[in-house]
Design goal:
The chain is α/β, with parallel strands linked by helices. The protein folds into four domains: about 90 residues, no CATH class; about 60 residues; about 170 residues, P-loop containing nucleotide triphosphate hydrolases (Rossmann fold); about 210 residues, P-loop containing nucleotide triphosphate hydrolases (Rossmann fold), CATH 3.40.50.300. It has 21 helices and 23 strands. The strands form four sheets. An eight-stranded mixed sheet has the order 18-19-17-20-21-16-22-23, with helices on both faces. A seven-stranded parallel sheet has the order 11-12-10-13-14-9-15, sandwiched between helices. α2 packs across α4, α6 packs antiparallel against α12 and α7 packs across α8. It is globular, with a radius of gyration of 25 Å. The two termini are about 45 Å apart.
């Protein structure tokens, strides 16, 4: 048993939860270790709670962390003796990853276990039985290659992760190299961590590589890592993105940083249907169907071409219908790129089994310290609800309460002051509700981008913002993902999607990219919420992922304007109080 050390910040409990005291001088070091194998579930001011789960341990194991490294980290930072069952469970779950292996044998596959007892258990599982073939001895089962993904998906639901070493079908060869000088004229070379991520995924072309997820912050160059991986694989590639803007950014980056020509790259979108050696499409198009009773029109794109690599950008956004298709193409190399593995639908285990486990995870603060992403200052400004609205709020259902709090008119005065504070900066106002955003666009005479904004108009607004012709834009949730606006250094979030942790991470990511010449490499992220409402409750959940990455929110409280000033554009300037 370990001894008592009052200077340590960590308390491990028998239910595999871990408490970290934020005010401890060793907190940051402990957090960086714990975040590698546990998920943050609560983050009030003084004590943060993490949960160690089978999936978090399997992901840690897949990324190369051993059970003894996890145990050593807990021992190093523990304040009190650690319940022995914690270490037993950690060793047991980490050992499960690799106990079951899927191997290629002739034209078929074999599921192999390190012990006969596991195989005996598997053949008795009703969920798994439809995907199994004949027994090949005490420790081996035949598997139809067509059931490769479905079997892994069924087994992980039974807490039985499979290490897939069955290899891949080669796609059509692709002649591509990275440029030393980008077409833009700038020198181009992979950063060390970008090179490491691509090499870890590729694994020299072996069966231990070729599928998995790379986790890096927004602004760290995930697109560049995807391009580097594409060049290493050197085979026909399909890239799936979140929207048409991201699609065209991928194409632009491919042309700028590789030897591919416009004839090599196809846009498969609502506007074009070009299939080329490298084809870029969107999740939205892949899941399009004329009615709920009909088939998905474009899903055959997965199967009609001899792809050697499929890249899933922002893999945490992968729609359920695409998961079903991914289960049927497990012989293709699969790369997932994301800033966070958090999925609000709880389907992280589907990402693990069908795309692959986490192979690389780069802490946000580490990249910030190295200067690769901007330093971020996060501030939550809490605004009261006017007395006249409180009765209506109390009578509303929870969804309407959230909307009322999100669209609180008192936020307008705060936004005025923030824009004045950052006069001369490049500011994005981001929100969820279109009526609210349109009112802000009218108030500040600023361009607005929503889901209904034509693509050409979007690109024109983004281009004017990049070239600093305009300093303020209003954007809906269409800007959450893959929008490259490197000079944006202030984001003001006026409303969000309930408690979405990944949305909070993505929105901060809009301003984390390294700044251009003449701009301080500091990002300001403001979240304006209504005090003592559903919106404040959800805001605490939204912030958890960023807290796990080492960011903290300074809380400011806004005084309520006088009733007759609420309708004025700026309200009464009472200032923000700590």
């Amino acid at each position: 048993m370990d001894g008592f050390n009052p200077n340590n910040p960590l308390i491990a409990q028998a239910d595999l939860s871990i408490l970290l005291e934020v005010n401890s001088p060793r907190y940051a070091d402990a957090r960086d270790q714990v975040a590698r194998f546990a998920e943050l579930v609560k983050s009030p001011e003084h004590i943060h709670t993490y949960q160690v789960s089978p999936l978090s341990l399997w992901n840690a194991a897949a990324s190369g962390m051993t059970a003894e490294e996890i145990v050593a980290a807990i021992r190093q930072f523990s304040r009190y003796p650690v319940p022995e069952n914690v270490f037993i469970e950690i060793r047991e779950q980490v050992a499960r990853y690799g106990r079951l292996r899927l191997l290629k044998e002739g034209d078929g596959l074999v599921l192999e276990s390190a012990d006969a007892e596991t195989i005996e258990r598997i053949v008795r599982l009703k969920r798994v039985q439809p995907f199994l073939g004949a027994r090949l001895g005490d420790k081996r089962l035949a598997v139809d290659p067509n059931n490769r993904g479905l079997l892994k998906q069924a087994l992980i639901k039974e807490k039985l992760p499979v290490e897939d070493l069955a290899g891949y079908t080669d796609g059509d060869p692709l002649d591509v190299e990275l440029r030393d000088t980008a077409q833009s004229g700038r020198p181009f070379r992979l950063r060390e961590y970008q090179q490491d991520a691509a090499e870890i995924f590729h694994a020299a072309g072996g069966a231990r590589g070729g599928s998995g997820v790379l986790v890096l912050p927004c602004g760290a160059g995930k697109t560049v890592i995807g391009i580097a991986t594409l060049a290493r694989v050197g085979q026909r590639t399909l890239i799936l993105t979140t929207n048409i803007t991201a699609l065209r950014q991928w194409i632009s980056e491919l042309l700028d940083k590789t030897t591919l020509t416009p004839d090599d790259i196809g846009e498969y979108s609502g506007e074009k249907k070009d299939i080329r050696p490298v084809t870029v499409s969107t999740y939205q198009l892949m899941t399009y169907r004329k009615s709920k009773s009909e088939d998905f029109v474009h899903m055959e794109l997965f199967n009609n071409e001899n792809w050697g690599l499929i890249v899933y950008d922002e893999v945490h956004m992968l729609p359920a219908p695409v998961f079903r298709s991914v289960a049927n193409i497990q012989a293709r190399r699969r790369l997932g790129l994301t800033a966070t593995l958090v999925r609000e639908d709880g389907a992280e285990d589907d990402v693990f089994s069908l795309i692959g486990p986490k192979k690389f995870d780069m802490p946000w603060k580490q990249l910030e310290n190295q200067g690769w992403i901007a330093t971020a200052e996060c501030v939550e400004i809490r605004v009261p609800l006017a007395h006249a609205l409180k009765v209506e709020y109390a009578a509303a259902d929870q969804r309407e309460q959230f909307r009322m709090a999100s669209e609180n008119p008192a936020k307008m005065g705060v936004i005025h002051r923030l824009i004045e504070r950052h006069r001369g900066d490049n500011v994005m106002i981001i929100g969820q509700y279109i009526d609210q955003l349109e009112a802000l666009a009218e108030e500040f005479k600023a361009p607005i981008i929503t889901g209904k904004t034509p693509n050409r108009e979007r690109e024109e607004i983004y281009a004017r913002f990049r070239t600093r012709q305009i300093k303020l834009i209003i954007v809906s949730k269409v800007a959450n993902f893959a929008i490259d606006l490197p000079d944006a250094n202030v984001a003001i979030q006026v409303s969000g999607t309930f408690g979405s942790r990944q949305e909070e991470a993505q929105r901060l990511g809009r301003v984390l990219r390294p700044k251009g010449e003449g701009i301080e490499n500091v990002a300001h992220f403001y979240s304006v919420v209504t005090r003592s409402t559903k919106e404040q409750e959800f805001a605490m959940n939204r912030q958890m992922f960023l807290t796990q990455q080492g960011y903290s929110y300074r809380i400011e409280f806004e005084d309520l304007p006088e009733p007759d000033a609420l309708s004025a554009p700026g309200g009464k300037d009472n200032g923000a109080k700590r």
